[in-house]
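Hey, can you fold this one?
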Amino acid sequence: MTILLVATHNQGKIREYQQLLADLHLQVTSLAQQNISHDVDETGTTFAENAILKAKEYAQLSGLLTWADDSGLEIDALQGRPGVYSARYGGKGLSEKDRYELVLRELQETAAPPWSARFRCVVALALPNGEIHTVEDTVEGEITDQPRGENGFGYDPIFFVPEFNATMAQLPKEVKNQISHRGKAAAKARKLLEELLR
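Sure. Predicted structure:
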């Protein structure tokens, strides 16, 4: 059975990907399970550059087929911020709640709502021989002025999806996995994996 390394330290992402890939003939492993504590410097200026950096480096370290993603929130009123800095926006030591509260404070100083935004995700698949494939997708929405919902992680409580009349954090996991940027990019990457596994 092919082993697929999902190159993230984020347990929420690992759980999502395990569900999304559950029926493939794959054994999903994580950096922690491979005893890899190394952090790749995300020096790219785009999600694609960062996903490729991570996939390549972890594939070389592990010798395994490697799946890495980079994703984040782009808010039009903030000129695309937090963007590639979504996971570390505002600096080190901030909680997920601190980060979305910072975004909400910044938005209060801009035009009035609705604040259009999107989550973007790029998945890079790296083979141990250096071959790289990427796919990407987005989900469009708006930023709410108050967090709502208990599910999800990151900016989910402030990302409102109009067609569901709910924030990402209010959606059941199964629905979120189908409509989210990560869910849609993962579905594309899954097709790629199926071809690579043939």
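The chain has five helices and seven strands. Let me know if you want another pass with a different chain boundary.
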